[in-house]
Amino acid sequence: MRHDGKRVLVTGGASGIGFAIASRFAREGASVVVFDINDTAVAESLERFSGPRQVHGKSGSVTEENDIQDVVDFMMSDLGGIDCLVNSAGVVKVEPALEHPVKDFRWIIDVNVTGTWIASQACAHVMSENGGGSIVNVGSVYGLGGAPQRTAYCASKAAIVGLTQSLAVEWGPLGIRVNAVAPTGTRTPMVQDLIDRGIYNLEGVQRKTPLGRLAEPEEVAAACSFLASDDAAMVTGHHLPVDGGWLANNYVT
What we know:
single chain, alpha/beta, Rossmann fold, 7 strands, 44% helix, globular
């Protein structure tokens, strides 16, 4: 199996893309730690795993250094190390820029950017002392281009581009590869909620996307699995779009 024996931490792993990522790594032989701010969701997610898979759950916030250090310490004591971190924890709020409260802007940046940084730094300390590892950040097509009413989200995901590249350059000599995926709209509970509330333009997204549909969480998970695997041993500092052709399409219908 592709990740047999590896020890993987997935932040935001209790639902949506994060759960799909955790499930993928578990199916491919890894020992997985699901980390999420919602302890009830963590417990429920563990019940959804089946078969002889080594999956653990820890609750906490990616914005709290002590919470991240606790899960890192757990992985060191119980699993013996960390081979891969997938930074999937993220939040979004759809609001007109002129009405976007500063507190909401700070919250989104704190979770999406600072949280990614805190987890990456903590895991990299372990990886650098144990021969290296792999970090995969979950970005967005909105980190590579703007979108209305998503000011903080677009800014945060653009920051992930710079953070990914900077860490890849600095940590490459330590044997740590850092990459990111850039999904288009993905059929998660969060996106479905926006669709149900009428504030997600599903028809427009489908029209913009040459493949004509949203991504599935499992498709994003497959890309993360590849980037973390030995098949991508010479790949670092890159964003892999999982977008059905969204970024390639400059034609407006």
